[in-house]
Amino acid sequence: MYGFGKKVKGDFDSAVEQVTEALKGEGFGVLTEIDVKAVMKKKLDLDKRPYKILGACNPQLADKALTADADIGLLLPCNVVVREEEDGSVSVNFMDPEAVLKLVDKPEIHTLAADVKSRLERVRDALS
């Protein structure tokens, strides 16, 4: 498994706001926001359900990771997906940093991945 998440109450835009605020509470900022629905419309003229990929980063933890392995940027930031389901409900899903960072054969990275995962799980748990 490479991710974890939950369904949240409310509409899509409020879910994006809610997860962004919860991320801040754990020291993460959103570096990137990809509006997949808008991209698919613009590039392929397809009408899709709302779907955003948020690139979340905790600068202190990112610095530790980059210090341990300069190429770790290939695996950063932590992606968070907010999407509207077929039934109109909204899901928020998080990349599992432990699963992704198993690719790096350094114990300090594995310890860091566990810390990041714990923080992201607290973000998930804070969502309603």
From TrEMBL:
Residues 34-97 form the DUF302 domain. Pfam families: DUF302. Coiled coil: none annotated. InterPro entries: DUF302, TT1751-like_sf, UCP021774. This is DUF302 domain-containing protein. It comes from Thioalkalivibrio denitrificans.
